[in-house]
Amino acid sequence: MTGTGQTTGEKRAIIDIGSNTVRLVVYNGPPRAPVVLLNEKVSAKLGKDLGKTGALSAKAIDTALSALARFAAMLDLLGVTRVECVATAASRDAANGPEFLAAVRALGLSPRLLTGEEEARASATGVIAAFPGARGTVGDLGGGSLELVAIDGDGPRGGITLPYGSLRLPELRAPGPAKFAATVREGLARAGWNSGAGLPLYIVGGSWRALALQAMHEIAWPLDDPHDFELEPADALRLCRQFEKGRPERADPRISTARLASLPDAAALLGELIEGIGPSRIVFSSWGLREGLLFAQLDPETRAQDPMLAGVSAFVATSLVHAEHAAAVARWTEAVCADAPGSGNLRIASTMLALAAMRSEPNMRAEQAMSWALRKRWLGLNARGRAMMAMTVFANSGLTQVPPEFARLATAGDLREAIGWGLAIRLCRRLTGCADEALARTALRIEDGELVLALEEPLQALYSNAIGKDLRTLAEWLGCAWHVKVVADA
Q1: I need a surface site. Which of 49, 135, 456, 468 has the fewest CB within 10 A?
Q2: Helix (H), strand (E) at residue 64
Q3: HSE-up of 192 (CA within 13 Å, CB side)?
Q4: CB-based contact 418:340 (threshold 8 Å)
Q5: Distance between first and last Cα of the chain
Q6: For the segment 235-255, what is each residue's pLDDT rounded down to a tens digit?
Q7: pLDDT of residue 184
Q8: Please, are residues 376 and 315 in contact by the beta-carbon 8 Å criterion?
Q9: 293: Cβ contacts below 8 Å, ≥ 6 apart
Q10: CA-to-CA distance for 370 and 357, rounded, in angstroms?
């Protein structure tokens, strides 16, 4: 339990009344790495005619209120009491916004109208929650507005709101590419935006996630999740100029019809931001405003947790693998696993997943564990980390051949290191059965350049020909000689 009184099993919900969609998301699981139980949206397009009429249309209001009535009923049925309901640009800018929000309150909800600054800060906070220590710029493309926020690793440090939402982009682009580029440049200059050059640009929003999916499709990227997908600026700009011309001939089937229609506009805007800001790389984030609101609810101790470890720990617990036990295995193997800077937690998380994989059916272990590592969303784990985690799990099963797709995600050195992790885990679990006493009374270490397996005398019966083979395989992988040492009972 955290200082906020939250438990792992407590449900929390966010209702986001946006300019394009009205969405309900119900979360559960560890507070630092929440799991989505329900994610439902309705395309109400509250901001569609706002630029022309200055008001929300009756049709959009009816659609939104119908969806919100369903959301309220669903929350009641699910027993969710921790609900945060927010409204953004369309409700903020519309002349009849107050009347609309009053109707929302009549449904039993308590909408909070975010200012442009609050909306921007919430989105930036969501990115920081997903990418601890992130520095650079967060760009959140909503239906009614674009928020740009500078982040410095600890939190937001100033931002701007521009009227360049996805619902407004078709009109802005109508005069042609040159006029649109000038409009974006003038908007940035007028708002005084002059930061972000040479730093990552983290981009948020459904239209940009669709762009990420299409980019992944174009380059045959071996991962499925657009979260944490990265592009070099030159590659991103090339793809943006390609996508802005119209609907792609071979669209990614995961992109909805509505998002596909907005893809050219979203690509055109991103292209102008890349040229105007000059970022070091483009990073797509599936975490934004809603997750930022959740993160802000947490106490400082919970916010400081590693989201990758929190998520993997909760996941492997369903396979009866406990984080403390996996950490003990990681300590047993650490003498032969020289962690690269920043890889300590990755090795612990990989150990957890490797142990969990052994609880699967033998014929499913490798394939299932690879799917866990490569396709399940792990916060704080990039493509390199995913490949190393998957390779660790493979080696724990005795497989050391590197699948071709892994080579696109991590260097040969990274993958070699991960194989060493997996072989060490394999030796540990097969020798000790991961029993606490066996872990405490055996050891693996390097002495005078040799790999040494030490066993206290009462446990020497644990050693067998199969264990000797595992020890030899690990030693050969490390490029050293090996021997077994029996020591007196401590």
Answers
A1: 468
A2: helix 58-78
A3: 3
A4: no
A5: 38
A6: 999 999 999 999 898 999 999
A7: 96
A8: yes
A9: 14, 84, 86, 122, 125, 126
A10: 9
Q: Using CA atoms, how far apart are residues 228 and 231, in angstroms rounded to an integer? A: 10
DSSP three-state, residue 22: strand
Q: Is 10 helix (H, G, I), strand (E, B) or coil?
A: coil
pTM: 0.90
- The model's pLDDT over 203-240, given as tens digits with 9 standing for 90+, comes to 999 999 999 999 999 999 999 999 999 999 999 999 99
Output phi, psi for 128, to 5 deg.
-65, -35
DSSP code of 82?
A: E
Burial of 283 from C-beta contacts in 10 A (0-12 / 13-18 / 19+)? buried
Q: How far is CA 327 from the centre of its chain?
A: 23
CATH architecture of 117-290: 2-Layer Sandwich (3.30)
Q: Do domains 12-114 and 117-290 have the same CATH topology?
A: yes
Query: In the CATH scheme, what is the homologous superfamily, with its name and number, of domain 307-487?
Result: Hypothetical protein af1432 (1.10.3210.10)
Fold held by 12-114? Nucleotidyltransferase; domain 5 (3.30.420)
Taking 50 as the pLDDT cut, the residues of the chain under it are 1-7
String of DSSP letters for 374-405? HHS--TT--HHHHHHHHHHHHHHTT--PPPGG
CA-closest candidate to residue 469, choices 458, 454, 484: 484
**Coil, strand or helix at 273:** helix
Question: What value, to the nearest 5°, has the Cα angle with vertex 62 and ends 60 and 64?
Answer: 65
3-class secondary-structure state, position 313: helix
Q: Cα-atom radius of gyration of the chain, to the nearest Å?
A: 26
The token duo for 132 is 């601890």
DSSP-assigned letter for residue 249 = S
Residue for token pair 């309901």: 85
User: Where along the chain do its domains lie?
Assistant: 12-114, 117-290, 307-487
pLDDT of residue 482: 95
Q: By C-alpha distance, which of 57, 14, 2 is closest to 293?
A: 14
